[in-house]
Amino acid sequence: MMDGTSTHLYVPTSQEEREVCLGPDGSVAHVTRVIRMIHGRWKLPILFRLYADPSMRTLQLKRDLPGISQKMLTQHLRELAVDGLVERIDFREKPLRVEYQLSEMGRQLLPVLIAARRFSTSHPA
Questions:
Q1: Residue pLDDT tens, the chain, 125 long
Q2: Residues sharing a CB contact under 8 Å with residue 87, sequence separation 6 or more, in sequence order
Q3: Nearest of 108, 115, 43 to residue 72 by alpha carbon
Q4: Which of these CATH numbers, 1.10.10.10, 3.30.43.10, 3.30.565.10, 3.30.470.30, describes 41-122?
Q5: Domain residues of the chain, as ranges?
Q6: 8 Å CB contact between 12 and 28
Q7: What torsion, rounded to 10 degrees, do the Cα atoms 75, 81, 83, 85 define?
Q8: Which residue from 33, 24, 63 is spatially nearest to 46, judged by alpha carbons?
C-alpha cells in the first residue's frame, strides 16, 4: 500500500497498490476529476471572485472579469454549478434576478487552491 513517503516516481507493484493509485476509484481518478472541474480559462477567476464576495449577479461578475464574454461566463457558471462548486439562486422576479454563490463544496476547495498557489510560488518555473 502507498504511504506518505511515496513520490510521483513510485510505481505500484502489487495489484492492491495499483488499484489505490490507478483504479477507477483511485487517486489518479479523483485528482483528474478535480482538475477537470476547475479547467477552463475563466473558472478559477470566477471561483476566486466568488471567494471575495459571498453572492454576485452575472452582470457584476462580467464587470469584474474584463475580457470574458457573456457566453463564456454563462457556460462556465453552468459547468461550475453542474459540478457542484457554485449555486445558482433564482429569485423568481421580473425582471429576472439571478445570483451565484459558492456551494459548501466550492468553499471546501479554497484550501486546495491555496495549497496549489503555495506550491507554485515555492517552486518557480
A1: 445 554 455 666 677 776 667 767 778 888 899 999 999 999 999 999 999 998 999 999 999 999 999 999 999 999 999 999 999 999 988 888 899 999 999 999 999 999 999 999 999 88
A2: 81, 100, 101, 102, 103
A3: 43
A4: 1.10.10.10
A5: 41-122
A6: no
A7: 120
A8: 63
